[in-house]
Every structure is written in structure tokens, then in C-alpha cells.
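Field log, afternoon session.

UNIT: design team B
ACTIVITY: writing a sequence onto a fixed backbone
BACKBONE:
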């Protein structure tokens, strides 16, 4: 199977990727969980610039485990995905920042699907339970923002090298593995009930 390698920030729409494709990422990835999304929305609604540049970027729904070094820098230990559906209420942030790729686990809903179609982006499923493997794709931590939110909720700027493997779970054409599975399961339930 072909490896699709993306370099972030992503300067073009990802219309050539479709659900089921395998992706690796080079370049900059930023983590963001619930509290970071809330704060980003507050900044954007006030018309303030964020302290980091997420335009055409990649957001990873994750809270890394890090070790503080003697020189006040941080070293990544492990990083795994967190459940993405919690960030569904903040799909508008993705549009305003033209986020091209979201990484997480479990998929997202229809608001995000519409957003990805609008910005030409994709949702990438990170393999749960593979935090050590994913950490191997991070060369270093470049910066951290909003540590006052706590280590898991802060925005960590990561330099990635062949970060993955990731699977396209939602594409820019409106297709969703998660929707397909849900519809298939509901159809099967109806068949079983009728019998």
C-alpha cells in the first residue's frame, strides 16, 4: 500500500486523499485538546492573534507525556491520541484557521465533516495504544504554549519526521469511515430485530 507523505504546514487542499489511505506527516504538528480549543475560540472571537501559527496546519488531539530537562526544555516520552468527538463543538475554529488535518481517535461528527470539505482537509485516525510508536515520529518539541492550562491541555509544537502511520478516517469529499460503520451497524440491528 502506498505511503502518502504530507509536509506541514500544508499549502494545498488534500483532495487526493480518501478514506482508508495511509498517511505519514513531516513538519510541524500542534497538540490541542478541549481547553486549548476553548481558548483559541476566545482569541479568535476577540480578534486577537494566537501566540502560534496554525494556518494550514495539523492539530493532534493529544496530551503528551513529557520530561522537563535541566535547561528548562522538554523531552517527549510518549504521545497518544485522545477521543476527538469532544472537540466537535469547536469545528468553527478549524474553518477560521484553515486547518488541513486533524489527528485523533474515534472520529468526529457532521460539523467537522462539513468543515473538512470546506477547507480541503482530512481527519486522520492515530492508532490507539501506540503512544511509544507515535513518539518515535517526533524529532523534538519546538515550543509549548499555555502551560497554565496544564501539561495535557497545553499546546505543544512538535517537529515530526514520518509521524504515523495514520489512516484517513474522514476525507475532503465528505466520506467518513465512522459514518459508514455506524450506518452498517444500524442496518444490521434492524435486520436482527425484524427476524
Amino acid at each position: 500500500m502506498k505511503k502518502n507523505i504530507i509536509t506541514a504546514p500544508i499549502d494545498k487542499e488534500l483532495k487526493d486523499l480518501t478514506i482508508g489511505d495511509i498517511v505519514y506527516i513531516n513538519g510541524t504538528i500542534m497538540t490541542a485538546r478541549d481547553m486549548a480549543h476553548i481558548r483559541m475560540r476566545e482569541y479568535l472571537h476577540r480578534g486577537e492573534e494566537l501566540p502560534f501559527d496554525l494556518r494550514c496546519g495539523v492539530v493532534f488531539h493529544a496530551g503528551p507525556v513529557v520530561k522537563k530537562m535541566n535547561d528548562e526544555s522538554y523531552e517527549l516520552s510518549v504521545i497518544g491520541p485522545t477521543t476527538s468527538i469532544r472537540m466537535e463543538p469547536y469545528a468553527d475554529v478549524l474553518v477560521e484557521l484553515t486547518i488541513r488535518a486533524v489527528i485523533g481517535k474515534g472520529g468526529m461528527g457532521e460539523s467537522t465533516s462539513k468543515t473538512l470539505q470546506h477547507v480541503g482537509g482530512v481527519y486522520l485516525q492515530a492508532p490507539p495504544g501506540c503512544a511509544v510508536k507515535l513518539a518515535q515520529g517526533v524529532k523534538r518539541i519546538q515550543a509549548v504554549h499555555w502551560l497554565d492550562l496544564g501539561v495535557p491541555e497545553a499546546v505543544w509544537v512538535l517537529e515530526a519526521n514520518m509521524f504515523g502511520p495514520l489512516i484517513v478516517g474522514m476525507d475532503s469529499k465528505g466520506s467518513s469511515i465512522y459514518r459508514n460503520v455506524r450506518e452498517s451497524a444500524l442496518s444490521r440491528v434492524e435486520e436482527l430485530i425484524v427476524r
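LOG NOTE: Strands lie at 3-8, 22-31, 58-60, 65-68, 74-78, 101-104, 122-125, 138-145, 155-170.
NEXT ACTIVITY: expression trials, pending approval
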